[in-house]
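Late entry, evening session. Most of the bench is empty. Finally got around to the prediction I had been postponing all week. Sequence below, unchanged from the version circulated by S.P.
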Amino acid sequence: MLEISDRTRTLGTENSFVVLGEVRRLCAEGKDIVNFCIGEPDFDTPENVKEAAIEAIRVGKTKYTPSPGMRELREAVAEYFSETRGIDVDPDSVVVACGAKPFIGYTILTVTDYGKGHEVVYPNPGFPIYESQIKAQGAVPIPINLKEGRNYSFDVEELERKVNEKTRLLILNSPHNPTGGVLSREDLEKIADVVKRYENLWILSDEIYSKIVYDKEFLSIASIPGMQERTIIMDGLSKTFAMTGWRIGFAANERLAEHLARWVTNTESCAAQPSQYAALAALKGSWSDVERMVETFKKRRDLIVEGLNSIEGIRCLKPGGAFYAWPNVTEACRLVGAKDSEEFRKRLLYEAGVAVLSDIHFGEKAEGEGEHIRLSYATSDKEIIEGLRRIREYISGNRVV
């Protein structure tokens, strides 16, 4: 029998897309589903961005570009990073790719060697592709637990215990998926103090939600003195400009840029030229659509958090950024006799018509943290209100205790 590799057979996935497949199948069967599972803005891409891509196609700008990206786009990204992070970023330090996600794998490939025991520390719960790419590239995954009692910030003492001479990369994500937590300056300074002790320790700072922050200023660890040279800043336009399908992301680091670009050459060649022109128009044009979207997300955040906290058996911290709520449903599971959050998720989907993700989709449960689900509030007020109503009625109507 022809076999596939162990690496492929054990490769992880992004379960939001798996659950989305379930949702679409149920909808095709005529089921009415309120969908909180996918992290995608329900806004349209701004008109000036769409027009820039259309014009690029019309005049024949549909060819290869240099692997790092068009020079004018790299200049725009460098200017954007410099202004928003309070640092000086050179265009030659910037690389563009087909979305931000590829830079997770490219960075791991660039700073670790397969099979040498190099370790990568990453947040748990966290974006599931971190762990899957660490394993796929032959490094050792070391989760660090983000706990509810600390508002899902890093426990620096735990970080100190887990970092050693074999650690080659620390992944940060702020604002954070799935909890919506935002690292403070104090958090970042403490993390930086630990990282600086190790000569070969890089940071991948996943800042894809950097513009979706509600109650405090966004800060990048690259802005902490002495940290820019060892930080790979990763960002993109998918969330900020509602451009998930355009597949444009970028990263910046002076020393690693040429190496990241070589991985682009080896895999995707370059990002699509029309999409690069669209990204240029986004960065250089008006941000009014973005500002309106973020203000809407803030109102939705308040709506969904207040609603979740009004449901018996559920408690939810108020997220500081992104567009996710991460409620604790330990008591709700007990009330309806669900053994864990995954059983609760499935029952909500198939019996209540509400699609959410469970905590097992974002890593291993930390001891004592209980059960959690993730809801994306990148949807309408009407859908949020209806979804909350269904959850409330499901719990009240299915109590076993």
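Two things to note before I forget:
The two ends are 52 Å apart (CA to CA).
The chain has a mean pLDDT of 95.
Will write this up properly tomorrow.
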